[in-house]
Amino acid sequence: MQRSPIQSRSDPPSPLVLDSSAIASIFFKERYEDKIIQIIENRTNFATLDIAYAEVGSVAWKSIAIFKQAQEPIREALRQAANFITDNCTIVTSKEIINESFELGSKHKIQICDSLFLSLAKKLKTQVLTSDERLHSKINEIKELRGILFPINFID
Q1: Which of 152, 94, 143 is nearest to 123 (CA)?
Q2: Are β-strands 128-129 and 89-92 bridged in parallel, bridged antiparallel, or unpaired?
Q3: How far is CA 24 from CA 61, 85, 116, 126, 146, in A?
Q4: What is the tally of helices (H) and strands (E) in the chain?
Q5: Which contiguous run of DSSP H or E holds residue 36?
Q6: What is the pLDDT of residues 10-60, one digit of tens each?
Q7: Of 85, 87, 90, which Cα lies nearest the Cα of 121?
Q8: Side-chain half-sphere of 84: how many Cα atoms within 13 Å?
Q9: Domains in the chain, please, with CATH?
């Protein structure tokens, strides 16, 4: 069931937008898994995009096809990731924000899949959590987008 991102006065604060890399980090034992879990463990209000299912599925595919990991644990991780998205996130369709995402991405040379998550965070007046170091560095260099990323220390 999709929940609407529009809040009433009694709703909790704006959700934290989780991009696909943050979600994948939790379920596919990636480098920043512990940091991402620590950030989200005391939160209950999340939003993401419908494309997160496909992008997390792509991580699962790479795990098997490229990194030759065992299929069953990866299938289970994908199932858990999909359930996490469904059960814990307000899911917004990319169609709802495609135009502003295209404009944002074109203006700042950001791929559309990334600019969709950034546009969602801007629309919801919140931050986006990503484990993508390159995206994080690039966004912090763009004055208009500073502060849109949830701060994460990538240095271990």
Answers
A1: 94
A2: unpaired
A3: 12, 11, 17, 21, 24
A4: 7, 4
A5: helix 33-40
A6: 455 789 999 999 999 999 988 889 999 999 998 999 999 999 999 999 999
A7: 90
A8: 24
A9: 16-145 (3.40.50.1010)
Dihedral, CA of residue 66, residue 72, residue 75 and residue 80, to nearest 10: -130
Q: What are phi and psi of 50, to 5 degrees?
A: -60, -30
Distance of CA 116 to the CA centre of its chain: 10
Residue 58 identity (one-letter amino acid)? S
> How far apart (Å, rounded) are the C-alpha atoms in residues 114 and 155?
22
Return the exposure string of 36-65: e unless at least 16 CB atoms fall within 10 Å of the residue's CB, then b. beebbeeeeebbbbebbbebbeebbeebee
Which stretch of DSSP H or E encloses residue 92? strand 89-92
